[in-house]
Amino acid sequence: MSGPRIGCGDSLVATTTGPVRFTDQVRPSVETLLANKKRDVGMSGLINVLYQSNLTYLGGELNGSTISIWLSGNFMLGGVCDIPRAKAQLEYTAMAASGATSAQVYVNGRPIDEVLSLK
Hints:
A hairpin with a 2-residue loop joins strand 5 (102-107) and strand 6 (110-111). The protein is an alpha+beta fold. The strands form two sheets. It has a four-stranded mixed beta sheet. It is built from three helices and six strands; from the N terminus they run ββαββαββα.
């Protein structure tokens, strides 16, 4: 099983669940992701491309099926392949925590696509 390509041969596989009631799982989920300062996730072969980044979770809002999260700080990535990985890790963490089917990420008030653009 494979999901949408996110760069350099990587893919994500999303799953859906029925409606779930949360108090606020987005904040602790995103904060845990951002607090992990290790590149490798155990012996799994998975990597955390955000391990060197200096990002802080400011807040989130669920509007229908879209979760929006706001971060402050700066990315420190290892190359162009890390750009889609970083975006996907943030978006899918927020979606999984909230039960949303789409996500919008803002960093320092700007959309993540703009922040991570090489243009």
